[in-house]
Amino acid sequence: MQIALVLGLLILAIVLFATEKISVDLVTLFLLIILVASGIISVSEAYAGFSSDFIVILAAIFVVSGAMQDTGILDRLGVRMVRLAGKRPRRVIAYIMLITGAFSAFMNNTTVTALFVGPAMGWARRLKMPPSKLLMPLAFASILGGTCTLIGTSTNVAVSGYLQKTGMEPIGMFELLPVGAAIFVIGLVYMVLTNRVLMPHREEETLTEAYEMRDYLAEIVVGTDSALIGQRIFASTDLEELHLRVLAVYREDTYTQPDPKTIIQANDRLLVEGKAHDLARARERKNFRIKADMLTDEDLQRDKLRLAEVLVTPRSFLARKTLREVDFRRRYGLVVIAIHRFNSSLREKLGDVRLKIGDLLLVQGREQVVQELRNSRDLAVLGMVRNQPQHAVRGYLSLGAFVVAVLVGTIGWIPLSICFLAAAVFVVGIRTISSDRAYRLIDWRLLILIGGMSAFGTAMENSGTSEFLANGILDLFRAWGPTVIMAGFVVLTVFLTQPMSNAAAALVILPVALRIAADLEVNPRSFGIAIMLAASVSLITPFEPSCILVYGPGRYRFRDFLVVGTPLTLLLIVLIVVMVPIFWPF
After folding, report:
1. Strand partners, 289
2. What is the torsional sign of CA 382, 386, 390, 393?
3. How many CB atoms lie within 10 A of CB 403?
4. What pLDDT tens digit does each residue of the chain (586 aa) get?
5. What is the CA 372 to chain-centroid distance, rounded?
6. How many CB atoms lie within 10 A of CB 229?
7. Which parts of the sequence belong to the RCK C-terminal domain (predicted)?
8. Can you tell me the distance from the alpha carbon of 386 to that of 119, in angstroms, rounded to the nearest whole number?
9. Distance, CA of 76 to CA of 584 (rounded, Å)
10. Which helix (H) or strand (E) holds 360?
C-alpha cells in the first residue's frame, strides 16, 4: 500500500508540475503532508531537506549574485567582454556563448540569460543579424555552462546534498569540470557549425507587426457634437460599451497620455485599441469617425512618445502579479499595449493577465521614461543596457566577496555553506542591498521544491518504492550491464525534465539509481553524477526558464527547439554515458 501511495503521488506530482495549474511549492508541501500523515516519513525526515547545508548555499548564492546584478557591475563586465568579439557572425556567437557559459558556471543560468538578452539584441541589430541567430545559442550556453561547477545549477547542489545524506562525499566545487567543460565545448561547436543550417532566420519585424497590432489600433476623431464630449476618458460609457481602450490623446498639436482626470473635449483625437469587430461597430456609430485603421510604429511614437519591448526578468516582483495589482501605468508611467507569451500575443483584459517570467510587454510612454528603465530591476528593455553601474564600489566588493567564497570553499579551509553565507552577510552589511531586498532575491519556491523532493526521496527509500523499482529494472536489464542501465537512467532523466524541474527530476530518479548501483556492486557515485548532468542537457523543448526568456525576443517557434535541440541533446547523452565511467569508474 505504501509503494502504491508513493507511486501515485509521484504520478500526481508529475502531472501537476507539467500543467502548472498549482504552484510547484504548494504541490511539494502537499506531498509532504500526505507522506507524514500516512506514516511513510517522520516529521524530522520531512524537514531534514530544508535544514541541509545545500539550502543555505543556494539561498546565499541568490543573495550575492542578485546584489551584483542590482549594482549593474555584471552588465558592464559582460558588455565590455562582448564588444571584443568583432563583427564576424560565427565569432560573435562563439564569444557570447563563452562569456555566458563562464558567468553561468557560478550563477543561476536564468539570471545570466536575462542579463545578456538586452545586450545581445542590441548587438544583433548593430551587426544586422537576426536575433534568432544569437539568442538560442545564448540560452543553451547558460544551461550548459552550469554543468562545469558545483554551484552552476541548483540541481548540482541538490544532488550533492542527497549524495552526502546517503553517506557519500559531497561533490567538489570543480569535480565536474572535465565532463562539464566537454559538454559545453560540444554545445558551442555544434551551435557555431549548425547556425546557418538549423537556426531559424527571422528578420526583426516592426513592433506593431510583431504583436499583430495593426488591425487593432485606430484613431477616433471626436466631433463637435459627439456624445463623448465631457466624459472622463477612463469612465466613458460609450468607449466601455465598445470595449475600446484609450492609449493616447492628441490635443492641441501634441500627444499626451491620459489619466483618470482627463476629460474628452471636442476635436480630440483618441488613439484607441480594440478588437477588429469593435472598431467596426464604432465606425457605425454617429459622431464616431475613425481616422485611421492602419497605424504604424511611427504613428505610436510621435511627440516623444515611444514604443519599447520590455522583458519581465527572473528577479522581477511583477512575476505572478497582474498589471492591475501593481498599478503598472502609475508605477512606471507606461501603457501596456500587448503582452507576448510564447506563440501568442494577449490583448484582451490585459489588466487581469498574471505576468510570468519571460513575458514580453509592448509598452508606450515618453522617451525619457523608457530610457530610465535601463536601470530597472524588474524590466529589461531589449537592446538597452544600463548607463552606469549603481554603487560601483559596492558592486566590485560584492564580486570580490563571491570570488573569495568560491576559492576558500574550494580549498576546504571553511565549509562551502559558511563561505557563501559569509559572502551574503557581507553584501548586506556593506549595504549593497537591503536585508528586505536580500529576502526577496531568494527563490523560496525553488528551495521548497528541492527540500521537499529530497524528503520525497527518503519516502521512496522508507516505503520500499526504490527497491521495488530497482528490482523490476534489474530483472529486465541486468544482462545488459551497468553502462546500458546507466544510459537508460540518463535518457529517463532527460525525459522527466520536460514536465518537472531539473532538480525535482534528478531527486526522484536518484534513489532508484543508487539502489541499482548497489545491487550491481558498482560505484553509485557514477550513477548519481550521470543523472545530475543529464538533468542539465535537455534542450529539446523551450520549457527551460532560460529558453523561455529568449523565446519571445527571438520570435522562435516550438519546432525550432526540436530541430536544433534534439541532435545536440542526443550528442550530450552519448558524451555523458562515455565520459562519466572514465572519471568516476564503476
Report:
1. 221
2. positive
3. 12
4. 888 998 898 888 888 887 767 888 898 999 999 999 999 989 998 998 888 888 888 899 888 888 887 777 766 666 666 666 666 778 888 888 998 999 899 888 888 887 788 777 777 777 778 888 889 999 999 999 999 999 889 899 989 988 988 889 999 999 999 999 999 999 999 999 988 888 887 776 666 766 666 666 778 888 888 888 888 888 888 888 888 888 888 887 777 788 888 899 888 888 888 777 777 777 777 667 776 666 667 666 666 677 888 888 877 788 888 888 888 888 888 888 878 876 566 666 677 788 888 888 888 888 778 777 766 777 878 765 554 556 678 888 888 888 899 889 888 888 888 999 999 999 999 888 888 888 888 888 888 988 888 888 888 888 888 888 888 888 888 888 899 999 999 998 998 888 778 888 898 889 999 989 988 899 999 999 999 999 999 898 887 888 888 887 888 888 889 899 999 999 999 999 999 999 999 8
5. 23
6. 16
7. 204-288, 295-379
8. 10
9. 39
10. strand 360-366
d(CA 312, CA 332): 13
Segment holding 218, helix H or strand E = strand 217-222
Q: How many helices (H) and strands (E) does the chain have?
A: 26, 10
Question: Please, what's the b/e burial string for 146-183 (b: 16 or more CB within 10 A of its CB; e: otherwise)?
Answer: bbbbbbbbbbbbbbbbbbebeeeebbebebbbebbbbb
Sequence-distant (≥ 6) Cβ neighbours of residue 361 within 8 angstroms: 309, 310, 311, 312, 336, 338, 339, 340, 379
The residues, any chain, with a CB within 8 Å of residue 229's CB and separated by 6 or more, are 222, 264, 265, 266
Q: In what order do the strands lie in the sheet with 360-366?
A: 344-346, 335-341, 360-366, 305-312, 379-381
Domains of the chain, each with CATH number or no CATH? 2-203+401-583 (no CATH), 208-296 (3.30.70.1450)
What lies within 8 Å, CB to CB, of 155 at 6+ separation is 502, 503, 506, 532, 535, 536
Give the H/E segment covering residue 558.
helix 558-583
Cell of 58: 543556494
What DSSP character marks residue 301? G
Report residue 199 as a C-alpha cell. Answer: 537556426
C-alpha cell at 260: 483618470
Cβ neighbors of 190 (< 8 A, separation 6 or more) are 567, 568, 571
CA distance 499 to 512: 19
